[in-house]
Amino acid sequence: MSLVLSGQGEKTSPLLRVARKYSAYLSYPLAICGLLWLLVLPLSSFSRRAYFSENAMMPGQVYTTFGTQSHMDAMDRVDAELKTKDRAHAVEAVFASIGLDTETQEFTYTKVPRIGKHTGTNVHGILRAPRSDSVEALVIAASWTTADNASNVNAVRLMAGLAQYASEQVYWARDIVFVVTDSGEQGIEEWLRAYQGLTTTSPLFVRSGIIQAALSLELPPAKRYTGLGLYFEGKGGQLANLDYVNMVQYVSRLERMPAYLHGLKDVPRRAHWWTKYTSATQLLLRQVRAQAFGSSTGIHAPFLRYRIDAITLAGLPQPDDPVSAVFAHGLFTDADVPAAPMQRQIGRTIEASFRSLNNLLEHFHQSFFFYMLPANQRYVSIGDYIPAAGLMIASLLLQAMHLWWMQGPDELRSDSPHTRITRINAYYALLRATLPSSVGIILRVHALGLVLLLIPQLIASSVLTDATTTAYLFTMALASISMVLHTSDIYWTRRIEWRQLKSIVSAYLAVVVACLSVMNFSLAVALFVVAGLPLVFTRVCRVDTRIRRALGVLMLVAVSPVCMMTLGMHVLGCSSNPFRVFLADFYSFGSLVYPLVCLVYWPVNLLCMIIVLIQ
């Protein structure tokens, strides 16, 4: 009540009086400062050097032995079995010959509802630890294809060699599960659901204990690798524990096969500060894209949904590698495998990593789960980057309060004590006349967003292709703009209070961004940039002519979901329509991007158009 009456000159707390006085001037600078804060994050002076919080891992304290003749023979057995059997049964035979408890899993899945069924086969083998009773387990996983649809048989071969190596050791305190899937992230998701007992359609009977950590392997066709790319983001913005990332980077450098974040190599220490800044900015942008919209490299992402720390190590072929060049022309054969020294270095990196994971006394918990990594072996903690989100939220809230106080004619904001009762009655009369209309518009626009959310999940499988999805989006855009024009025309003569409508929308978006920032900071920032900034600067100047209103609507159309997705598809080089990708991730992995586009981003964009058009 104090907040409501403060706009009519009532006595209020000093904080509200200060906010009322300066809110009109602080909203825009705060939004700009929030974005400028993000530009400071790549500076080397703003980040800290990485360290280990979990000393029990003792990384690099063991002598690695992977690479003997028996390990190479196990890798060669994969090639021999693939010549006479299908892929799943070939791997199962190799795992059984090593002495693992093996099982194959046949499963059926749909990427989106009613988009046809796809079948796949997972095979896994479990090495029972001689020093435990199968209470805990570690997982190493690989798919038959990489994220770029290249052959990943090198990773499967290396996994067989690692299984042979692990079976020869007696110091394991946890079971080791080796998983091979032929359906990428979806195959691992189906395997995890069965392993956790969440599905009865394709259950698993050969199981181990609670999974403590997982590692995914991707080795595209090449003879030599310059290093490994390290990926750690999940579909919903989850991140692997920072100790896990630091440990893998540390042991990889000891084995002379360094793991670079997102495949970006280190900048020389004596490089110019601008070179360091641009390199850190590029790395942070890749992390923001992967965290906000779902990691697209490796099959580690589904593990993070189940609170299992997981990463992907992907080989980085040399630029002049002959096998990599031949594969680019479609002439690669599975016989073109990496050189033995490369296999030995990568295998020993994984061996050292699993030896450190084997030393863990409990689940990862001491280090950060919220962080940003501007460079290899450097990090920015949540306490350093979350103020940017706070400034953005404050910008929306201050503008919401200011517009709420400024709604109605100027007579309602008089400070005269003689008209106090008259002003309060007039103010409540204004609310009774305009608030139902404002709420009605918001509900109507969100109902359209709900239709956008539900329709693609109900249409036939033969309809929802990339081309028809694009046509569907443009049809929805035209329908939305038609609704905006119709709604504005209906309320034109009723003189709806646009300040009230913008105030409610600003407060609503501030709450969404605030809740999202503590779960997925990158997605919260992305939502503020495409929806919050246009809302903050909507009707920042007078729109008393048709030309100005038309220009305002055109600028809002330029930042609408259709234009942003079309631009993103070309700029980011997406092979499929982003809308369809978001839909598949929402259905399969519970990603928040698709519902946020339908229920927040699109409605806020339409409401901004209505605010511009209303007199």
Keywords:
three-stranded antiparallel β-sheet, 615 residues, eight-stranded mixed β-sheet
Describe this structure in words.
The structure is a single chain. The chain is of the alpha/beta class and 615 residues long. 53% of the residues lie in helices and 12% in strands. It contains 20 helices and 11 strands. It has helices at 2-5, 14-40, 69-82, 87-98, 153-167, 184-195, 242-254, 273-293, 301-305, 322-328, 340-358, 382-406, 420-454, 466-490, 498-517, 521-536, 546-558, 561-571, 578-589, 593-613; strands at residues 48-49, 101-109, 118-127, 136-143, 175-181, 210-218, 225-231, 259-261, 309-317, 371-375, 378-381. The strands form 2 sheets. It has an 8-stranded mixed sheet, sandwiched between helices. It has a 3-stranded antiparallel sheet with strand order 1-11-10. Helix 2 (14-40) crosses helix 12 (382-406). The longest helix has 35 residues, at 420-454. It is elongated. Residues 328-335 have low confidence and may be disordered.
